[in-house]
Amino acid sequence: MPVVNRIADYAEEMKAWRRHLHQIPELALDLPKTAAFVAERLREIGVDELHEGIAQTGMVAIINGRGDGPTIGLRADMDALPIPEETGVDYASGHAGNMHACGHDGHTAMLLGAAKYLAETRNFKGRAALMFQPAEEAIGGARIMVEEGIMERFDIGEVYALHNAPGLPAGHFLTTPGALMAAVDTFHIHIQGQGGHGAMPHETRDPVMAACGMAQAIQTIVSRNHHTLEDLVVSVTQIHTGTVDNVIPDTAYINGTVRTFNPEVQQMVMRRMKEIVAGQAVSYGVEAELDYEIGYPATFNDAEKTAFAVDVAKEIAGEGNVVPDGGREMGAEDFAYMLQARPGSYLFLGQGESAGLHHPKYDFNDQIAPVGASFFARLVERAQPVGG
After folding, report:
1. In 10 A of CB 277, how many CB atoms?
2. Is residue 158 within 8 Å of residue 312, measured between CB atoms?
3. Phi, psi torsion values for 161, nearest 5 degrees
């Protein structure tokens, strides 16, 4: 892979960093071991400023270039998932029940590699702001970092991030201008009926049947209430009710996810879901409460910054190994909050054939770390060239 030669020299070091992080997976905002390790590496690397305790365990490292200029922001997420690991590798998770099943350990190692190169060479003007973020998988650490003012505090003008992509050839890049990933909402429906003996259903107000009716009706939002050319996913993912075969329970619970790009579609889903829950509750003689949680917004890439990022990716990976307009997908990403605050771009970096993201057998491909680190480094050098 045509990576920056100096960064290629860091390959074994990045692998060691990544595999250490893989053994200490931590969740959400609570990343004390991860944050301490990253901060220690950044101090060894020799960044000019290190600002810790942002969004609890996040941090921003500043590397000064040669002379005055703007500040470019590069982001890596650091948190893991509550999934028991099944990889069998000798550096597997040492925190039972948690694992790096989404490659954030690799993202962090790549940004550390870029930091080491940028601090050593400083072949750019202005500043690079390296944002190490907690809680991408949970409550939106990017949102919290933005709300705590990192863009203004560090005068960040543009932002970029990478995510590994199983199934995309190793070292290849894929992105698209405009909408890239969907907004994600979560719904909870709590149903209160009246239980009783399974042999005497006429004496009950059955929440099981109400849950089944609601789940089926909710699926008609996609098939009957929205324009077929507007992307929309509504998925019921959990129904919990009952404990034994001969008892009709008192309560039922429904949970699921909604993925949209258009805010008008999102509002339509919320309205129809309220109507369906209320109407079905009356139909089945139960009481029902809908709790609709609006989550991460859609991830929108700035067209100009994405064209620039694609050009850099082609320099690193080769002209034929970059897909500049790969379309959008229904996954979600909290980097959307940073892209709302500043123009920038989010790209996928192929890691070859492997288990999928969030799978207990997933493991980051260490061979692509120099590619990602080279991409980050060249973004800075080309966005803010010395003498430019």
Report:
1. 23
2. no
3. -150, 160
β-pairing verdict for 173-174 and 322-323: parallel
Name the strand (E) or helix (H) holding 207.
helix 207-224
Q: pLDDT tens across 266-320, in order?
A: 999 999 999 999 999 999 999 999 999 999 999 999 999 999 999 999 999 999 9
Could you tell me the pLDDT band of residue 4, with boundaries at 50, 70 and 90?
confident
At 360, the amino acid letter reads P
- Using alpha carbons, list the distances in angstroms from residue 38 to 20, 31, 109, 290: 11, 10, 9, 41
Q: Where do the DSSP E strands lie in the chain? A: 49-54, 58-64, 71-77, 127-133, 156-165, 173-174, 178-181, 183-192, 196-197, 232-241, 247-248, 251-260, 287-294, 299-301, 322-323, 344-350
Euclidean distance between CA atoms 20 and 17, whole angstroms: 5
DSSP one-letter string for 351-381: --S-PPTT-TT----GGGHHHHHHHHHHHHH
**Per-residue tokens: 332:** 């979600």
pLDDT digits (tens, 9 = 90+) for 113-139: 999 999 999 999 999 999 999 999 999
98: nearest Cα among 52, 60, 137, 45: 137
The rounded distance, in Å, linking the Cα atoms of 15 and 27 is 22
What is the maximum span of the chain, computed from C-alpha positions, in angstroms?
A: 84
Arithmetic mean of pLDDT, 345-367? 98
Report the chain's C-alpha Rg in angstroms: 24
d(CA 192, CA 249): 9
Give dist(CA 132, CA 51) in Å, integer. 10
Instruction: Please write the tens of the pLDDT for every residue from 35-61.
Output: 999 999 999 999 999 999 999 999 999
DSSP summary character for residue 190: E
Mean pLDDT of 200-212: 98
Residue 309, classed as helix, strand or coil, is helix
What is the full DSSP assignment across 87-112?
---TT--SSTT-B--SSHHHHHHHHH
Question: Comparing 2-6, 9-13, 22-26, 122-126, which segment has the lowest mean pLDDT?
Answer: 2-6
